[in-house]
Amino acid sequence: MTGGRFRLALTGGTAVLAMLTAGLAGCSVGGVGKLASGGSSEPVTITPANGTAQVKPDGTIEVKAGGGKLQNVTVKGEGATVTGKFGDDRKVWRSDRTMTPGTAYTVTAQARDGGETRTATSSFTTLKAERTLKIADVTPNVKGEKVGVGMPIIVTFDGPVTDRAAVERALRVTPEKPVEGAWRWVGQDKAIYRTKTYWEPHQTVRLHARLAGVNAGGGAYGAEDAQATLTIGAEQITKGDIRKHHMTVTRDGKKLRTVPFSAGNGQTREYTTTSGVHLLMEKGNPVTMTAPGRKPGDSGYYKTVVDYAVRFSNSGEYAHSAPWSVGSQGSANVSHGCLNLSPENARWYYDIMQRGDVIELTGTDRQVEWDNGWGFWQMPFGKWREGSALR
């Protein structure tokens, strides 16, 4: 399964947090700061203390000023960028995210008390995890691709996720044009994000996975952060009535073309085109189609090469060129379940198609299943949200 302009970029550069800039010097003594010259002797303390090893990646870094107020806290390391917040009138600072496993970090803190500045440092290493968890794939992920307004975000991990709630909390979707959405887990290693209503067209959507150091359960910690970008193109929606043998394609609310087709002949459930909300999944030119579950010599076996094929389910449904049935297109359903189009219309449809475009079909008693391909819009959003680990 290929993806849209969703470029997976695993991050791991130097982690630096500069909450405030003080630019003030001082001495440092292994996690407890002393006055640079004269004044109060109240220390600046850092936890974990200097030299500590095997710090849990999901532990908290804490800095306290015994006197005065904290001015600046930085955390440096080769892993995830560690962020944090001041509290108690700037007498304390605590990290608010996890750290990369098996990584050395150095915390430098400065506090000012009267006219004096104190500096403390602490260097420590985090636990090297027995097992790590990474994002193996984000769909869509094809550089430069624009996708349709129905496009889901499909995240596949490189192993089973035991603590799904902890991992899901690390996944944040930020569209330019906000819309409600939810994750649904569809397996031990896969979560899918779907919005309540279609994405607004012509915008950028970003996925931020602050996974490094997250305790995923079963002894596994997130290995690294990841991010990806999704570009939503025009709102292209196809609406077709299988009984009337025509479909109308619109872009951003304006009609582009009405296309005659020939759908499944309906003699069996297998040969009945599914009704419901589908998403265009992929396209190929040419595509070889064979009868599912049959081999040469079996009754009903076929093997056909078709051009300009646009797939919209996992049960073998495509819109494709079918010059042999042009006489039936617009008047009768004679196919094995696909939408047969004329060569000219098939090429036109193929050329404008974006994965994630919506195709709504009516007119048969066979509804597309929510888990048939990308039939996710068949499930009411309230029920979809029940699949979240954070419901």
From TrEMBL:
Keyword entries, A-Z: Acyltransferase, Cell shape, Cell wall biogenesis/degradation, Lipoprotein, Peptidoglycan synthesis, Transferase
DNA damage keyword on record: no
InterPro entries reported for this sequence: Big_10, LD-transpeptidase, LD_TPept_cat_dom, Transpep_catalytic_dom
TM ranges: none
Pathway: Cell wall biogenesis; peptidoglycan biosynthesis
Keyword Lipoprotein among record annotations: yes
Domain L,D-TPase catalytic as annotated: residue spans: 236-362
Protein name: Ig-like domain-containing protein
Annotated source species: Actinomadura livida
